[in-house]
Amino acid sequence: MDLVLQAVVNGLVSGALLAVPAIGFTAMFAVLRFPNFSVSGVATLGAFAGYVAYAAGLQIVGSLSVAFVVAGTVGLFLDRVAHLPLVKQGALPAAIASIASGLVLENVVRLGFGNDMRGFDRPIARDVRFGDIRINPQQTETMGVALAIMLLVFAALAFTRVGKAMRASADNPELAALKGIRPERVAMMASFVGMGLVGVGGMLLGLDSSIDPLTGARILLSIFAAAVLGGLGSAPGAVLGAFLIGVAEELSVLVVGSPYRSAVGFFAILIVLSLRPRGLLGERAF
Amino acid sequence: MMNARIGRRATLLGGVAAVAAPAVLRAETDPIRIATLTPLTGAGGAYGPAMAKVAAAVVEEVNKSGGVLGRKVVLVSEDDQTNPDAGVRAARKLIDVDKVAAILGTWASSVTTAVAPLCWENKTFLCTVSGADTITQLPHQGYLVRTQPNTVLQITRTGGFLVGLGARKIFTLVPQTPFAKSSIEIMEGVARKAGGSHAGLIYDDKKTTYRTEVDQALRFAPDAILCAGYTPDTIVLLKDLYRAGYKGKIIGQAYAINRKLIEQVGQNEVVEGVYTYAPSVAEGSNALERVKKMSGLASPDPYTSQVYDHVNMVLMAMAAAKAFNGTAIRDNIRKVTQGGGKPVDNAIDGLKAIAAAEKVDYTGASGPCDFDDKGDILDCKFRYEQIKAGKPVLVKIA
């Protein structure tokens, strides 16, 4: 029983880290209307940008900001140049183009940093025990940062003009345009913030383990599954989906063993798409 | 008229003779062709260049002392890029164009698995340093030997080492690989035989955290854990074992728990006391001294030492057969490497003895080089090290 409880705790930790890029992914889908798979490359880029900043002496929050800005800028550039021109032909061509640009980014990082694993130079601390349950102080810290970022995003969506404009645009682009919201600007904002969050997510996951050019590719399926599970386009749905996927992945290790862990993501997508295509929370942007 | 006709015939005959004679002569002095196919680039790129260099040095030495039964040896070197596709392309060229009798030194198991069928179908002999059990189980008809211990030998000896340290409850953590299941089964056998117990699990090497796997392992309350993965996943695993407060013994492959891993973990107490194991070179042997000189390396790696042995064995096998093709090597390699006779550790001494009709028994830089029928080595020494203050310290070679 305590093994199950421990797995749930572990799942909540990885779910919190997964939630940040999942929000970014789903927010971009809500506004731009295509699944942007270049998040794999952007997450890697964010992780490496944060790594360089951290190595240069910035603290965690400073490094996360660098990761956000670099990932957001590159993500926005890719959307403008490669993805959005194709959206007019439908979501599929844009999605395929985004897979390609993700691969390009991954290999650009590989060109610059090589294939080696790199770790953030943080002291590794022993776990704190609560009865039979272990929690690591650093992971609690990383999880706290992730939760703070989520709160910030939700506050921005709820209370700022930009957030409201994004939600309006996601809800009904024509109506939003009639109200004077410039769809062009909202789309750029969604690209920048969404990709920025993905980059931050890449760095958060890197803080917890280590980074290499495949960091983003490894979490792509989990991010996508979390977003689909919660309802593509719904930010709270992405958070719920991320926690569920995180916990399910850890629990699956106890039941079927860890080589089948990635099946959890596929299985979740399969079930949701066949039973409730709108996802758990539907498609509301907030 | 008549004269002219005879003259023409004579010319024709003479011409035929002139063309044919060198061919007969050539057949006797044709050089012997062999090749190295080592990873000069890619994941094995740290090892391949030294391997090729040592092979070339052995060939040069043999040529200087008169070749093999008077024939010159030509060595061709190709790069397998640590990639099965590139390996197959290079092997095709070596077999079809260069017409080599033997290919030496394939490193990655995936490359060896891809190249081996080409070799046995074309009756080209293959010497490899790859470790996966499945390689010698291929239907290679005898055209393959390997100097690297297989999984059975590696895990049996590592388990024996742990038992010797007093471990009775052993847990094996191994990524999903061709050797995953057999590693767990073999370690289980070793632990039971020592009156202990064992459990294990196979993990996904792409995870960013192994907290749940570590929890599962620690529930078993092991006094020793075998981490049989590669560097990237072992980094995460060791960190998580440390976080979880595990204080028992840990052992892993020296190719995974290496300098890069220690650097990456960045905190010495996480890896403090961790043991590593690796097939050992024949420390203190004359053959290893020769490898040191030829490679310019102060402590040659096992693969460079093994390729030195490959070249020596193959050349002596052909001399013993008085024939210079893959089948001759297949039928004679065990006659020069095992079963008693004059002990030799290099081809020059061996070739002299063979020319004098003596039986030789080769022992090389990587060990005794005795093979079973499948092509696996029967025995080899292992090198055990322990990390202390961020540096590997030799525990023993056994």
Essential attributes:
heterodimer, A: 286 residues, mainly alpha, ABC transporter involved in vitamin B12 uptake, BtuC, two-stranded antiparallel ribbon, 2 strands, globular, B: 398 residues, Rossmann fold, 2 domains, seven-stranded mixed beta sheet, five-stranded parallel beta sheet, 14 strands, 19% strand
Walkthrough of the structure:
The complex is a heterodimer of chains A (286) and B (398). Chain A has one domain (2-114, 130-275): ABC transporter involved in vitamin B12 uptake, BtuC, CATH 1.10.3470. Chain A is 76% helix and 2% strand. Chain A contains eleven helices and two strands, in the order ααααββααααααα. In chain A, strands 1-2 form a two-stranded antiparallel sheet. In chain A, β1 (128-130) and β2 (133-135) form a beta hairpin. In chain A, α1 runs antiparallel to α10, α2 (39-55) runs parallel beside α4 and α9 (215-230) packs parallel to α11 (261-275). Chain B has 398 residues and is an alpha/beta fold. Helix content of chain B is 46%, strand content 19%. Chain B has helices at residues 2-29, 48-64, 84-96, 109-121, 151-164, 180-193, 211-219, 231-243, 259-265, 268-271, 286-295, 302-321, 326-337, 347-355, and strands spanning 32-38, 73-79, 102-106, 125-128, 144-146, 169-175, 197-203, 224-227, 249-253, 275-279, 342-344, 360-362, 382-388, 391-397. In chain B, α2 (48-64) links the parallel β1 (32-38) and β2. Chain B starts with a helix and ends with a strand. The model of chain B has no long low-confidence stretch (mean pLDDT 90). The chains are: A mainly alpha (286), B alpha/beta (398). At the A-B interface, α1, α9 and α10 of A face β7, α7, α8 and α9 of B.
